[in-house]
Specification:
With 93 residues, the protein is mainly α. It has a domain of 51 residues. The protein is built from 4 helices and no strands. Helix 2 packs across helix 3.
Length: 93
């Protein structure tokens, strides 16, 4: 059994290198991958809106979208503390 860290929801890895038939419960893996794809599939207009807002706050599209998916709301100018925390959490290159 794998170690579950803080912030890990316990779902299967979405980046498994092995074919589905070799890893875990096939149905659970299928449901997680399907939900992951659905969460990122949006209309062109919504994607452009999110991109514009992300650039306004100095975030990437992915960072901004993840914030919406995790918190259920769009970032606002008064959320500067949270925006700064997102920027600080970026991996160092």
């Amino acid at each position: 059994m794998r170690q579950i860290d803080v912030g890990d929801n316990g779902g299967p890895s979405l980046d498994d290198e092995l074919p589905d038939w070799q890893t875990g419960d096939l149905y659970i893996g299928y449901c997680w991958r399907r939900a992951h794809k659905a969460a990122w599939r949006v209309s062109r207009d919504i994607a452009l809106y999110r991109l514009e807002r992300a650039e306004k706050f100095g975030l990437t599209y992915e960072e901004y979208t993840l914030e919406i998916l995790e918190r259920g709301r769009n970032l606002q100018p008064e959320d500067q503390e949270r925006i700064d925390a997102i920027k600080r959490a970026r991996p160092l290159d």
